[in-house]
Amino acid sequence: MNNSVYILKDRAILYVNGQDARDFLQNLISNDINKVTDSSSCFASLFTPQGKFLYEFIVVKHKSGFFIDCEKAQSEEILKQLNLYKIRSKVEILNLSNEFVVASFSYEKYLTIEKSKDILGFTMKYREDPIILDPRNKNLGARLIINLEKLYLSLKKLELKDDNIEDYHNQSHKLGIVPKNLNKLKNKLFGIECNFEELNGIDFKKGCYVGQENTARIKLKNKLSKRLLPVKIIDGKLDEDEKVYSNDIEIGKILINEEYPFALIKLSNENFNKDLILKCKNGSFKILIPEWLKI
Question: pTM of whole model > 0.85?
Answer without folding.
Answer: yes
